[in-house]
Amino acid sequence: MFSCLLAATALVAASVVSAETQQIVVGMNMTRSYTPNTITANVGDVLNFTFVAGNHSVSQSSFSNPCKDLSNGTVFSGYMPANITAGKTSSYQVTINDTNPVWIYCAQGNHCQLGMVLSVNAPTSGNMTFSAFQGAANATGANTTSTSSMSASGTGGAGASGASASAATSSKASAADVRSVVSAFGFIGTVLTAAFAVML
Ligand SMILES: *[C@@H]1O[C@H](CO)[C@@H](O)[C@H](O)[C@H]1NC(C)=O
Ligand SMILES: *[C@@H]1O[C@H](CO)[C@@H](O)[C@H](O)[C@H]1NC(C)=O
Ligand SMILES: *[C@@H]1O[C@H](CO)[C@@H](O)[C@H](O)[C@H]1NC(C)=O
Ligand SMILES: *[C@@H]1O[C@H](CO)[C@@H](O)[C@H](O)[C@H]1NC(C)=O
Ligand SMILES: *[C@@H]1O[C@H](CO)[C@@H](O)[C@H](O)[C@H]1NC(C)=O
Ligand SMILES: *[C@@H]1O[C@H](CO)[C@@H](O)[C@H](O)[C@H]1NC(C)=O
Ligand SMILES: *[C@@H]1O[C@H](CO)[C@@H](O)[C@H](O)[C@H]1NC(C)=O
Ligand SMILES: *[C@@H]1O[C@H](CO)[C@@H](O)[C@H](O)[C@H]1NC(C)=O
Ligand SMILES: *[C@@H]1O[C@H](CO)[C@@H](O)[C@H](O)[C@H]1NC(C)=O
Ligand SMILES: [Cu+2]
């Protein structure tokens, strides 16, 4: 009887979701984007942002004031110039401490106003979705968005064609997703792919 209880307890414990590391690519294909940009995370999960191109940041805002630093926030990567073709990448980790939504934006130039935002655990319906957040971010740039302002400094030059698809992308990056994404960068991408393969 007692050992049955123990076994049952062990089963329950084993079914508790364990923390994982989720991979996010910043600046894929020299676009102003986080891939993926809608994250579902458990408490304890670590978000590993890998900067591959451009000069972006991972910064935190509130929902209602997108593109502005949350005064009491603890998330800021600093600006991370990167060029994966030249072998220059860096990464930044964010630990998820609770189930509340986390609102992320890029503080570089007008990237946030161009939709370079990400949400963690945003509701999927109602008025605080990822899409509502991105729409609000876009709206803060309503008067400044123009073709010329899109080439603001630090965006990574050639290839930053503005073709960035910033619509919501899948909510959980599998290791395979990130591998295929990163491998689009060729040889150095392959090295990075190998690194992902080792750690995942
Ligand atoms: C990057 O390029 C690959 C290959 O062309 C494409 O499949 C992918 O959707 C692109 N991603 C972004 C964020 O532009
Ligand atoms: C984050 O990604 C980088 C590759 O850009 C890798 O070297 C590093 O080990 C990863 N860190 C974690 C905690 O997954
Ligand atoms: C930080 O500020 C936000 C918005 O002003 C507030 O909702 C939140 O509770 C604050 N968090 C902490 C840890 O003080
Ligand atoms: C979680 O807490 C750690 C340690 O205080 C902090 O560095 C990190 O930024 C927090 N994560 C979020 C999403 O606020
Ligand atoms: C990235 O590095 C490659 C190889 O060194 C170089 O040809 C390319 O111009 C660089 N890209 C940018 C945007 O600086
Ligand atoms: C969202 O809707 C609720 C009512 O359902 C309202 O109280 C709240 O102010 C709205 N928030 C925003 C950011 O529009
Ligand atoms: C925000 O702007 C970007 C870039 O123009 C666009 O791709 C995205 O669909 C917009 N998002 C919303 C919710 O309007
Ligand atoms: C955009 O310009 C209009 C007219 O000048 C002004 O009323 C509005 O407040 C501006 N919006 C932003 C977000 O700056
Ligand atoms: C990256 O962007 C920051 C903020 O705009 C800027 O201060 C820094 O000089 C940039 N770095 C490079 C290498 O362009
Ligand atoms: Cu950016």
Give an overview in words.
The chain has one domain: Cupredoxins -  blue copper proteins (Immunoglobulin-like). The chain contains 4 helices and 10 strands; from the N terminus they run αββββββββββααα. The protein has helices spanning 2-15, 130-139, 175-183, 187-199; strands spanning 21-26, 34-35, 38-39, 46-51, 53-56, 59-61, 80-83, 90-95, 102-105, 117-120. The strands form 3 sheets. Strands 2-1-4-8 form a 4-stranded mixed β-sheet, with helices on one face. A 4-stranded mixed β-sheet has the order 3-10-9-6, with helices on one face. The chain has a two-stranded antiparallel sheet with strand order 5-7. A hairpin with a 7-residue loop joins strand 1 (21-26) and strand 2 (34-35). Helix 3 runs antiparallel to helix 4. The termini are far apart. The relative contact order is 0.19. Mean pLDDT is 76; it is low at 9-15, 145-167, 169-181 and 183-200. The protein binds 2-acetamido-2-deoxy-beta-D-glucopyranose (9 copies) and copper (II) ion. Residues 114-115, 131, 134-135, 138, 166-167 line the site of one 2-acetamido-2-deoxy-beta-D-glucopyranose.
